[in-house]
Structures are given as structure tokens and as C-alpha cells.
Amino acid sequence: MRITSSLLVTVLAGALSASAGAEPLRCDLTQLKPAPGLSAALGDNLLTVSWRGDGNQELRLRFTIAEGRPVIRDLSVRKGTGAWATLGESLTPEYHVVTGVRRMTTQQADPLKAAGIEITEDVIDRNRWYAFWDAPLELPPPPAPGGRGGSSRVLGGPRTASEIRRADATFSTTSCRVRTEGASLEMSFPGLTMGIFAGELRFTVYRGTNLIRMDAVAKTSEKWVAYKYDAGLGGFSIALTPRVAWRDTGGHPQHYAFGGVVNQSMVPLKAANRVLVAEGKTSKEIAVMLDLGLQTVRSYRKTMMKKLGVNNVAGLTQLALSAGLTRFPVAGGQEETPR
Predict the structure, then answer these.
(1) Torsion angle of C-alpha atoms 207, 199, 92, 97, degrees rounded to 10
(2) What is the pLDDT of residue 92?
(3) Cβ atoms of residues 25 and 47 within 8 Å
């Protein structure tokens, strides 16, 4: 399993001092290859990674390990050979995951029974991933007082609270590994645990972009696991990063200035690139809009379809419509949400 968060600035509460409990940094650089616009080096108990970003910008990440946890000592940017501007200090990776168990639904089983097919464990296992009505991360509401309990839509008995587990990421990191992959650098930190998952944390930076990608590359021995996660970097200071900006799903620029009432929970933002495929953009159009390679976009599209269990763009569009992520165009240039 790989769970991914691509980010420039993600603001979450909490921080860990990189100087407190800092440990000797051991890092394998044998897979690091010389490449223009990409560099990584060890020094002063830090792994320093720098790369050429968008336009005339250069970016720098400096990693350390504190109390067994990977920490970004600082994230900085500069124009040309100018002075470094710090965007964040002592940034820590955060993952919050909830897991459940996939079930086959009666909607799938009834037509098979009508066709004379016996519902065996093998049949159930083959159909778990294609269930539409399954909600593996939620418990059904109890029946109203005096009312009749609704029939279960899933096979195997009612879902129980013990099936739904929540966990935060913990780390026991003692080393790192750097690898050159084409026009990108990967920095991996083993020792990640997230509930039933275990693996490593991986950061990737790309020459020619200001993008930082953070992956949890992990696996579990348990079967039929459904999962959902929130991820980001904790520790950003509004003194250093007083404002964030993004493009919404209509492609319009948006921004938010910090300093007002504190949000007690995370605030979701819908960014334009999340629904480019669903809105009918071709791979070539997406590549141009996001300044990505055509093959990279095709690979993302293929992975997205596989994970969602659809075979074509029409299937992706239908999912986006049903989730309210995109709308039908109507006369007059307006849009209509399907009902």
C-alpha cells in the first residue's frame, strides 16, 4: 500500500523541536547519482536536499532525526543566488488512518443467487472490492425506538465496532536512504507504523517544480482492508507562513490569511487538479496545465482507475458526479449538480 500526500504547505497543529533529542544521522547515498538541478549531501548531522524549482527558484530541505522521528529541520526557497527565505522549521510528518473490512453486499449476491450460483467464501472474496453500497468505515445507525431494524446490505453479519480501527503514525527511524530517479530525488526513512500498516516514509522532489511529495509506503498482512487517511506536515508557523494560496475546482485562484479564529478541526480544500480527469481533460491537456510529463499523467490516470475499480473516463466521471466533485454543464454556461 502507498498512501500519498503531495504538498507545498500544509498547516496542522503541533511541532517537535528538531534540536531536542537529535540523533546521529546515518544515510545511504549509494543510489544517489549526479544530476543537474538536484543535489543531496550529509553534513552537520543533517541531510541537505536542494533542487531547481519553478522558474528561477531553488528550494532546500534539511532533514534530521529526532526521538526516532524524521523531521524537516527547515524548508527554504530563494530566487537565483539570493538569500534563503524560510517557509517552515521543525516540520513533522503526520498521518491519521482509519481502517475497516470490505464486505460483499446483498446487491451483488441476489443476482448471483437468482442465477443459481452458490455464495461461497471464494465468491464473496472475489466480489468484496466491487461493492457499491459497502461502507466499511462506518457503523450502521441503531433502529429508532419502537421501530424495526433495517436489513443489512452486507453479507457476514452486522458490522461491529471492533472492525473499525483508528491510529496515528509512529516512528522508530534510525537511518535514511537517498535515490536518484530520473529528474527526481527520493528520500526514504524506514520505521513507520500506522495501526495495522508498517513500512517507510518517503519524500520526493522534482526538478523544475516546487512540489514536495510525501508517501507512506506500507503494507499489512490483514485481508480485505479498506482505509482512509489524513496526512500533512505539522509545525508550520503563521509568522513564517501567514498565507496559503491554491486554485479551486473551477481553476480560480483562492487564498487564506491566518490569524483569525482558530479552527479546531482540519479544513478540507478542493484543488483543481483533483478533478481534471473527471471533467474530461485529456492526458495531454492535464500535462500542459500541471507542467507534468505526458507519461506521468497517463500513469496517474491508470493508477486512479485501478484503485477506483473503473475501466474508462466515463466511469471516473460518473463517480465524480455522484460524489458532487463536478457538475453537468447546462444552457447559459451554468452548471447543474445531478440529483
Answers:
(1) 110
(2) 96
(3) yes
H helices of 266-293, in order, are: 283-290
This prediction's pTM: 0.69
Q: What is the pLDDT of residues 222-251, one digit of tens each?
A: 999 999 998 999 988 888 878 877 777 777
**Residue pair 268/40 in contact by the 8 Å Cβ criterion:** no
131-134 contact pairs (CB < 8 A, 24+): 131/102, 131/103, 131/104, 131/105, 131/107, 132/105, 132/107, 133/105, 133/107, 134/102, 134/103, 134/104, 134/105, 134/226
- The residue type at 169: A
Say which amino acid occupies 194. Answer: M
Buried b (16+ CB within 10 A) or exposed e, 273-297: bebbbbbebebeebbeebebeeeeb
pLDDT tens digits for 76-86? 999 998 999 99
Q: To 5 degrees, how large is the angle CA 204–CA 48–CA 32?
A: 60
Q: Are strands 2-7 and 26-31 parallel, antiparallel or unpaired?
A: unpaired
pLDDT tens by residue, 1-47: 554 443 332 222 223 333 445 568 899 999 999 999 999 999 999 99
**329 Cβ neighbours under 8 A, 6+ residues apart:** 335, 336
CATH architecture group of domain 267-339: Orthogonal Bundle (1.10)
| Helix axis angle, 313-322 to 294-308, nearest 10° | 60
CATH 1.10.10.10 domain extents, the chain: 267-339
Question: How long a stretch of residues is the chain?
Answer: 339
User: Residue 257 has which C-alpha cell?
Assistant: 490569511
Encoded amino acid at 238, one letter? I
Does 97 or 11 have the greater pLDDT score? 97
Q: Cα(203)–Cα(176) distance, rounded to whole angstroms?
A: 11
